[in-house]
């Protein structure tokens, strides 16, 4: 987070810090010099930052009602605002990862072993990546190349694709066709997948059926199966998983015990995979 962002969020950060710093019990600070007051404020700020990063509450020895003095001091020393903001962000990320880990554990096999998921790469790989995607998502289009490069260069990655159509009715229809293509076992799903993402314009039912026909499937039969209840249930299971993990956009990834929100470069995916092998987390200490 940049200093500019911290300054733009100054009112909220100051309010948060005042709530954290001002004790319930007060004593007069009128007999303190400016230097002594500044030193006291900085001592408390340092303790609070340390507490946030360690996620361990500590009782501050300093007391006093000096809200105005705190605000003035923080305005004169914006670097403390930046540090406090980073500490709050770190604490929030740690809490989110902990909550996500609990949710993934509770979901169990529904995360990694859905009967209609698409498994690419090494089915017995030591690191699993799950991508939620939409065929009309521009960032998902870019992500295809990153995925292919990772799978080409790392033969121990298991990559799972989950149809998550959220952008249009065309996306939903294409996801239904893709589910049937995957079930057929007669064509290469990855070829179907990449051809759809190489399409010009919006991907819809007509385009998905056209690609399925190019690969040898009967488009009439595929269209007849599109409204099958089991297809609806397959996509519905992905919606349920996404809802449980607060996933509402594409692309999103599940790697280890973390939801990675937003597009990831090849380098980003590779770094997270390497970290999983090194320390069991997507980000190592």
From TrEMBL:
Sequence ranges assigned to domain Thioredoxin in this UniProt record: 93-278
Per the record, the coiled-coil ranges are none
Q: Which Pfam families match?
A: ScsC_N, Thioredoxin_4
SUPFAM superfamilies xref list? Thioredoxin-like
Q: Which family does it belong to?
A: Belongs to the thioredoxin family. DsbA subfamily.
**Which residues are the signal sequence here?**
1-26
Among CDD domains, the record links this protein to: DsbA_Com1_like
Q: What does this protein do?
A: May be required for disulfide bond formation in some proteins.
The species this protein belongs to is Maritalea myrionectae
**Which GO molecular function entries does the Swiss-Prot or TrEMBL record give?**
oxidoreductase activity
Q: What is this protein called?
A: Thioredoxin domain-containing protein
Membrane-spanning segments: none
């Amino acid at each position: 987070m940049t200093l500019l962002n911290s300054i733009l969020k100054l009112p909220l950060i100051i309010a948060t810090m005042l709530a954290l710093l001002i004790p319930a019990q007060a004593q007069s600070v009128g007999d303190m010099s400016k230097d002594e007051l500044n030193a006291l404020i900085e001592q408390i700020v340092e303790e609070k930052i340390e507490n946030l990063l360690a996620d361990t509450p500590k009782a501050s020895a300093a007391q006093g009602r000096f809200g105005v003095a705190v605000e003035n001091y923080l305005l004169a020393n914006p670097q403390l605002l930046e540090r406090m903001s980073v500490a709050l962000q770190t604490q929030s990320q740690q809490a989110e990862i902990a909550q996500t880990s609990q949710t993934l554990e509770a979901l169990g096999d529904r995360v990694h072993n859905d009967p209609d998921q698409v498994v690419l790469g090494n089915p017995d790989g030591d690191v699993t990546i799950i991508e939620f995607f939409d065929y009309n998502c521009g960032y998902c289009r870019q992500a295809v190349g990153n995925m292919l490069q990772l799978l080409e260069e790392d033969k121990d990655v298991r990559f799972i694709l989950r149809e998550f159509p959220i952008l249009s009715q065309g996306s939903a229809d294409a996801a239904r066709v893709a589910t049937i293509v995957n079930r057929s076992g007669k064509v290469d799903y990855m070829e179907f997948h990449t051809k759809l993402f190489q399409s010009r314009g919006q991907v819809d039912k007509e385009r998905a059926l056209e690609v399925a026909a190019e690969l040898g499937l009967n488009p009439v039969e595929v269209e007849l199966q599109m409204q099958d209840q089991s297809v609806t249930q397959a996509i519905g299971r992905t919606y349920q998983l996404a809802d449980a993990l607060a996933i509402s956009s594409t692309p999103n990834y599940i790697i280890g015990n973390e939801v990675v929100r937003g597009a990831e470069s090849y380098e980003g995916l590779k770094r997270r995979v390497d970290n999983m092998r090194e320390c069991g987390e997507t980000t190592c200490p």
